[in-house]
Design goal:
heterotrimer; A mainly alpha; B alpha/beta; C alpha/beta; A: mainly alpha; Non-ribosomal Peptide Synthetase Peptidyl Carrier Protein, Chain A; 4 helices; C: alpha/beta
Chain lengths: 87, 387, 315
Amino acid sequence: METAQLKQQLKKQIVESLNLLSVKPDDIKDDEPLFGEGLGLDSIDSIELIVLLNREYGVVIEDPKQGRKVLVDINVMAAYIEKHRKR
Amino acid sequence: MGGISAIGNTVAENRTSLIKGTCGMGRLEMFPSKFSDRLPVAEIKISTEALKEKLNAFEPGITRTTLLALHAIKETIADSRLTNEQVSSFDTALIGASTVGGMCLTDEMQRDAQKDTPGSEYLASYDYGSTYMYLQKRYSLNGPVNTINTACSSSANAIMFGARLIRSGKVRRAIVGGVDSLAKFTINGFNSLHILSPDLCTPFDEERKGLNLGEGAAFLILEREEDATGKKIYASISGYANANDAYHTSSLSDEGIGPYKAMRDALVSAKLDPAQIDFINAHGTGTENNDKSESRAMLRLFGKVPAFASTKANIGHTLGASGAIEALYCILSLVQQELYPGINFKNPIPETGLEPIPTYQKTALTHIMSNSFGFGGNCSSLIFSKA
Amino acid sequence: MLAIEPSYDDIPPGVLRRMGKSVRMGTGAAMPIVKNNPKPDGIIIGTANSGKEDCVKFLNQIIEYDEGLLTPINFVQSTPNAIAAQIGLLTNNHGYNITHVHLGLAFEFAIIDADMMLNENPLNSYLLGAVDDISNYNYNYEDKNGWYKKEAFTNKPFYETNSPGSIAGEAAAMFLVNGNRSGSIAKLLAVDALHDEDESVMKEKLQDFIRKYLPAGERIDLLLTGENGDSRLLKYYSICESVVENNVSVARFKHMSGEYPTATAMGLWLCCNILQNQSIPGHMMKYAAATTRYKNILIYNNYKGIQHSFILVSE
C-alpha cells in the first residue's frame, strides 16, 4: 500500500475508532499533533490507538509511554506502521 | 463487624494476617482466564459452590458477590447480638455498595445480553443492587435498603450515608458496608487501562507498577450513641466527607484536588486539626497516578504526614468493598491500639520521600483517617475515633 | 420507547464522543440547569441501568478477542457514576458527588440524600436527578425475564392491554434543589420507600405515609401513579387509588415514559409542570375529579412488584 493511501486510511480509522464527531478524515493534517494541541487527544485515546494499530496492522506497542513516541502525528504513525506492520 | 478477604474469612483471621504482614496475592483459580498466570490477584480461596454450601444459599441466580456479602453480614449480625426483630425493624437500614454486582458472571452476562439466546437463571442478578435485594429478602428487612456505586469509594460512601441516616433521625441503626468479587470483566477492564501490575503491588514505592485486584466484603453496624450503652462499642465515626476531583474520568489530578478536599472536609466535620490524626489508612492502590496524587494531597494538608500505610498490598484492591474492609481494619487498629505494616515497600517516591510504616507496632491511637478515591473523581474520607 | 436526543450543544464534541446514552442524556439534561444557576454544592444522581450498554460492549470485546488487547473506553464508561462524574468534570464541580443504584428506588434514595444534605447545609443547593437508558442488552435481560409485553399494541389501549409486561422506556430528569421557598417551582414534602410484595403491607405503609406527611387540614389534589400496563401489578395501583379519597383525580404517565427503574424522576418532573401550569393533559387522566387547584400531589410507583415509592409534592 502506498504511503499516501495508508495515511488516508489511518485518518479514517482514527476518526471512526475514537468517534471524533466533529472531525472529518480530510481535516486532519499529516503533521498536526495528535495530543495536547492539534487534535487534543488524551491518554485513553492513546490506548485506543495502540489497540487499533495492533488489530489493523499487527503493530505491537507494549507500553503506553512508548506509544506516545509513535502517536505523534499521522506522518510518524504511518512511518512506524510501514516499518513494523505484520498485516 | 464482619469481614472476609484474601487474608482471612473472619475479622479475627484478617487481624492475625495483618499483624503477620501476610500478602494475599496469588494465582487466579476460581474461574478460567488468560490472566491466571500473568496477574497476581487476591482471591478468597473458597469456591462459589463451597460458599453456597457453607451459607445454605442455593437460590437460583445467586452470585459469588452476593455470597461473599452474605458471609460477611452473617458474622456482622452475630457479632452485634442484635435480635432478629431489631435487624428487620423498620428503623434499621442496610446501605451497601458494589461495583461488580452480578457481573462476576462475565460469560453468562454476555450470553444473556444477546437477543437470541435463552435466558439463564442470572437474568435478574446482574444489577449492582441485586445483592442487597437478596439480603433484604433473606433477612426480611423492613427498613431502608439502598445500594451505592461510586467506583472505588462506594462502600466509604455507604458508611457515610448510613451514618447520616442515623444522624438525621431517619433510622436508629444501619448495617453498612460493601462487597465485590473478582471478575473477568474487571480484570480485563483494568488491564486495558494498563494499571494492573504483573507483580505484587507496591503502594507508594518509586518502582510501583500498578494495582492487584482483590475480592472481599465487610459490614459494620452503626448505632446512635444513646442506643449503644451496655454494648461492645468498637469505635465512633467522628467525621466524613465526599468531594469530587473533577479532572478526568479515570485518573486523579496531579495535585490531588479531590483527595485534598475530601480529607480536609472530613477533618472539618470531625472538628479536628490535621495534627490530631494518628494514622492514615491510605487508598494507596500502587498505581503511578493514585499514589503520587494522594501523597501530594497528604503533604499539602498535613505538612508533616502522620504514619500511614495501604492494606491493598495485603488484600489487593477490593473495589466496591475496599472502603468497608479498610474501615474495619482502622477500627481494629483503634480497638487493639496497634498498627499493621505497609508491606512490599522498598523505596519512597523521590519527590515526596513518604514511607508507609514498616513494621507492626503497638501504639496509642485516638483518631484514624481512611481514604477511598475512585474513578469519576469520587473521593471520600472517613475519620474513626477510639470509643 | 426511545428518547429523542437533542443536539447537546452544551457538551463539547471531544467529550460527547465518548459518552454512552445515559451519560449523554443525563449530562445534556443537567447542563442547562448548571449554566443558568449558581454552581450547585453537589451532584446527586440515581440510576440503575446506566453503563450496561458499554458494559456489554466491553464483554463482547472480551469474548471476541479472547481476553486479548482491548480498548478501555467502554469499561470506563460502564460505571454508573460516570453521569455524576461527567457533569462534575464539565462544570468543574468539586462538591459532594454520589450515585445511587438501588434499582427501582435509585431516584428515591437520591432524593433522601439531597434532603439530608440540605438539612445539614441549609444554604446549599444540589443538582438532583436520575437517568436510565434502554440499551439493546438491558432490553434483552428484561425481555427474557418477562417484563415487557410480548404482543404488539399501540399506546392508546396501553393501560387496558390486560397482559403481563410493560414497554421499555428511557429518560433523564434533572432538578436543582435547595431549602429556599422563594422562586421555587415545587416543594418536595416527603419521600418514602418499601420492599414488599404483600399489597396489604403496601397499603398500610401508604396510609402511614399520608397520615404522617400530609399537612394538617390539607388534601391530596392529584394521585400520579406509575401504572404501566402490566396486569400483574394492577392490584397495587388499585389499592393506592382506594386509599386516597374518592374525589381525587388520578393520572398516569408511563404511556409517555415507558417503564424503567428511575421513572419516578419523570413523574416528579411532570408534577412540577402540573403545579406550574395548573393543568394536566387529557391523555394522562385516569379519573378526573372536580379539582379547582392542584396543590398537593402524591406520586406512587411500583417497580417489579417489590419496590414501592411514595413521594409527596406541593406548591
